[in-house]
Amino acid sequence: MRTVRRRGGREGSRVGSYLAAVVFAIPFLLPFYLLLRNSLMTQAELGALEWRWWPEKINLQGFVDAFDNSTAPLGRALFNSTMVAVVSAPVSTLLASMAGYAVARIRVAAARPVFLLVIATMMVPGAATFVPTFVVVGSMGGVNTLWGLIVPGLFNAFAVLLFRGFYLRFPQEIEDAGRVDGLGHLGVYLRLALPNSAGLIAALGVLSFIENWNAFLWPLVIGQDPAYWTVQVAMSTNLTAQAINMPALFASAVVSVIPLAVVFLVAQRWIVRGVMLTGIKG
Amino acid sequence: MSTRTGTGSTSAPVRRRRADRGAWLAFVVLTAPMVVGLFVFKYVAMGWGLLLSFSEARGTIALGTWVGLENYRTLLTDPRFRDSLAMIVVFTVIIVPLTFALALGLAVLVNRLRRGRALFRTTFFLPAAVSYVVASLIWKMSLFSGVPSSVANSLAGLVGQEPIAWIATVDPPLYWVVLVTVRLWLQVGLYMILFLAGIQEIPAELYEAAKVDGAASEWKLFRHITFPMLRNTSVAVVLLLVIAAFQAFDEFYNLLSTGLAGAPGPDGRPPLVYLYDVALVQQNYGVGSAGAFLVTLLIVVVTLLQSRLVGLGRRDA
Amino acid sequence: MLAMRGTTGLTRRRFLGTSLLFVGGAAISACTTDPIGSGSGNAKVTLNHWYHEYGEQGTREAAMRYAADYTKENPDVAVKVTWVPGDYKTKLQSSVLTPEGPDVYEVNEVTPDMVAQQQVVPVDDIIGEARGELNEHAVSPLTHSGRTYGVPMIIDVMLLYYRKSLLAAAGVQPPTTLVDLVSAAAKLTSGKTKGIFVGNDGVAGMRQLFPFSVGQSALTDRTVSYATPEIADALTVARRMFTDKSMLLGYPTEWYDPGAFISGAAAIVWGGLWALPQIQRELGDDFGLIPWPGHGASGRPVVILGGWSQVVNGKSQHIDEAKKYVQWLWLRNEEIQKDWALSYGFHVPPRASLAASAEPLKTGAAKVAVDLLNQYGIRNTALWAPSVAKPYEDAVSDIIKKNADALPTLTEAARRSQAALDQLPKV
Fold it and tell me: Residue A144 pLDDT more than 70?
């Protein structure tokens, strides 16, 4: 992988680049600062008419309220969100990898139609299928269960698209070598293709984690007991109630973002590398 | 030098038949979970929705009274629905080039940085970790709230402007500023990463050769090397952006709704918000489903158009 | 070019192994559910009772306590209370489509579609004689063709709050006509304070008031009747509050939260009685209550009734038990009714005798509110379903915020409202 070098750039232009980067970074970081600041302010300060850079006194009551909340205990919600995201990420990525490999590398007549069938689902807005899906899951007894929460989200057509792109570029020699060793298609997949796609798997796994963590509508209608609420649902309890508890709202928002941000910071290297493996660029 | 075997194998018939059966088995095993899953949770639901769109279904999603295209007619004769279709097209036309340009620009910028590249890359990508709900919160309550204490109004105050009710002002449509910026903030990072990956694949020799030929200005290098080499990425990015834009819902719903009191007003009502109201508030699932399929149709048409345009070798906007 | 990428330490085996572990763990934890509400013990019947998440502290514990008390008296019936946060409506609408829907739940009104689809059952039998003392406006949104489908739990009163000190400082009297309100709002707008707040979008709290304020109503039986010159005129007058910039817009909280009023962001706000305790706590005596003023020759002041009512799901397996439970809660048990309405915020008990005997409502601001309620309280009937109301709401938004011509806009909207009304099942 060769990096592009901008040789011949003068020092001035390099400084210019850094300056521009910083200028752009400010509006990107601003909302995070606001989120943090808001979570430490009181209700009165949040409703005030003058701008504040930072609260007068750091107020942690919002966090206390959010975790202490008897209707929507944030701790339990965090656990649920983690469970859902941690189970969904590897499973959905694995399923997509399997299907992506099959349509990319197994020469059967059905490969293209199946691929198109999978991709077609990307064009239908989730809203179109939301209510019927809910009824389907409900009639299977999935309401208020963990499987009802997790299973419908395991089938990610976009990931199949990416995996297919990646596997299409998989070197034929490796597959041939595996064949010579006596491996069938499944064997080639399990022992050669899959391990070598770890980068993309990691990348898509992280993206799936994020998407599941941030999902709101589905967990709302599936989870009836507060025991099943995810973080986003728990957070919404502070928002549509008649008396909005803003510090608790922002505190739970901070709590909902931090785990993701951490996962992100750790894994963003993978994500970048993973994207480069899909061949989507060219 | 690798040779890809074509769809027809050139090996002896016996081996091909055995390979075919093995291939079929492997294919089925590998694709079954995804296909079955999509079938149950998408296609059954889509089929049901389609049937619903041809039925009268109020307060129920049982298929009963067939009404043919009545629901579709109801929608297409509703000026508010037509407005929402027009609105989402305008929204897409605005957000897609903006996101594209910003993502590409940031990618080029970040790529030029030597040290701290990872830091800036993370900075621009980090918003993707935030959900639309949380982002809408921040935008609605602290960035663009109508009171003088919001960021936007504090800045406006610095230039002597009165506080503006950004979200509530529909004439001129200032609420668009809020909607566009929130989506930009949330999305740009991911597409920047896509472009970055693309840029980093461009062989350095191309640039060196160009400089030897005397074309040394940054802009010329970008126009003649970088951008053309990013063609595939660009196509993919635009496609993804368009599909996402047409399905916009979360930020509209969270920014513009009045909580307990109700759904967003008639301005800033994209099709999915309109349909959400029809289906889940008015409980008219027949019309709601019809609308969803109209939107799907729109997305498919636009996507096909776009592929056609690109296929003819034209450059993207 | 062979690009053999090394693994990043994530071997296939380990990957699959950890996945299975997680799935297994998930399966196990799916089997244990925390019991909520009264224990199911040896109960033959379990009722699912849904509440939306009330903002007031202590309400959830109270709801569970009532359920537990009921089971104590009726050991055969267990009650599982579900406290629904956030978007209660969406969740409810989705659930009543499935067999997993609640047995007993609450709504603001009962639409004809709900009746046609058996999402509710008639409850005239359990209301019985109490019908006579239930506030007529609380029951009308629950009634179709003489049959009542719900039992009111609480009445919410919505009206205008005004800041005495701010009005005094500006030399403004509490307005008694719409025109006065408009000019008061303009005079009260100064510095960082705005004169009036009816919702962050400028219309939410006030749009349903206009027909009543001119002495008419949006619906007359099954005819849409809001496209009249008087209503158009009222809207045109009220619009000035928006164009004059006397309106608070885009505040961090909505009109139903007293935050804007307490912080002084607005001098006059449309609000609900539920906010009264907090306002009293923060502002002491510095506020007053008035109805929304009338307009025109036949105008009348307006106070809006809202509230929640209890209904029984027609698809429930235990309709009789559910009805008995509802009867016990909201018609027989006076302690519960008073407790629910008054201990956690201010709502008015729907039964006139209870409302009259309730201590907290006998004095001060609360009494003013209840008197205004009795004098001017009104609301739309059950035929004002969302599909019927929507064209009107959109029209009001266009008129107020985009300077649309009032009467033509209303007339066009009335056509669509009538079409929607005609499509409602006749139940």
Answer: yes
Kindly provide the ipTM of the predicted complex, given to two decimals: 0.83
Cα C322 from Cα C320, distance rounded (Å): 5
Q: How far apart are CA C221 and CA C114, in angstroms?
A: 19
Q: Is the pLDDT of residue C125 over 70?
A: yes
> For the segment A57-112, what is each residue's pLDDT rounded down to a tens digit?
888 888 888 888 767 788 888 988 998 999 999 999 999 999 999 998 888 888 89
Closest residue of A to B134, CA-based?
A: A253
Contacts of C29 in chain A (CB under 8 A): 83, 146
Domain span at residue C190 reads 157-304+381-423
Beta-carbon contacts below 8 Å between B and C = 110
Average pLDDT over chain C, rounded to whole? 86
Interface check A177 vs B, CB under 8 A: no
**What is the domain range of residue B145?**
72-310
Same domain, B249 and B164: yes
The answer to whether residue C370 is domain-embedded is no
Same-domain check for residues C200 and C173: yes
In this prediction, residue C372 carries a pLDDT of 93
Q: Token match 């047995």: residue?
A: C103
Q: Which residues on B lie below 8 Å from C387 (Cβ)?
A: 278, 282, 284
Cβ partners under 8 Å of residue B35, min gap 6: A99, A114, A117, A118
Residue C164's pLDDT is what? Answer: 95
| CATH for C325 | 3.40.190.10
Instruction: Collect all residues of chain A within an 8 Å Cβ-Cβ radius of residue B55.
Output: none
Is C102 in contact with C95 (CB distance < 8 Å)?
yes
Pair B280, C90: CB distance under 8 Å: yes
Look at chain B and report how many structural domains it folds into.
2
Total domains in chain C come to 2
Question: Assign residue A76 a region: left if phi > 0, alpha if psi is -120 to 50, beta otherwise?
Answer: alpha
CATH number at residue B234: 1.10.3720.10
- Quick check: is C371 in a domain? no
Q: What is the mean pLDDT of chain B?
A: 83
B102 domain-assigned: yes
Instruction: Report CB contact under 8 Å: C394, B266.
Output: yes
Same structural domain, C279 and C336: no
Q: Calculate the alpha carbon distances from B254 to A219, B241, B250, B263 in Å.
A: 17, 20, 6, 9
Whether C292 and C337 map to the same domain: the answer is no
Is B193 a domain residue?
yes
CA nearest B290: which of B85, B75, B94? B75
3-state secondary structure (DSSP) of residue B191 = helix
Note the pTM of the prediction, 2 decimals: 0.84
Residue B154 touches partner C, C-beta closer than 8 Å: no
Indicate whether C366 pLDDT > 70: yes
CB contact under 8 A, B283 and C416: no
The answer on C97 and C151 residing in a single domain is: yes
Decide if B249 is inside a domain: yes
Q: Between residues A278 and A140, which one has the greater pLDDT?
A: A140
Shared domain check, C342 and C242: no
State yes or no: pLDDT of A37 exceeds 50: yes
String of DSSP letters for C225-255: ----HHHHHHHHHHHHHHHTT-B--S-SS-T
C373, part of any domain: no
Total Cβ atoms within 10 A of residue A171: 16
Judge whether residue A277 has pLDDT over 90: no
Q: B204 and B79 in one domain?
A: yes
Query: Do C142 and C200 belong together in one domain?
Result: no
Contacts of C13 (CB under 8 A, 6+ apart): none
Q: What is the mean pLDDT of residues A138-164?
A: 86
Residues C228, C127 within the same domain: no
The mean pLDDT of C7-20, rounded to a whole number, is 39
Residue B91 has pLDDT above 90, yes or no: yes
Q: Indicate if C215 and C91 belong to the same structural domain.
A: no
> H/E element holding C107?
strand C104-107
Residues of A in contact with C10 (CB under 8 A): 198, 201-202
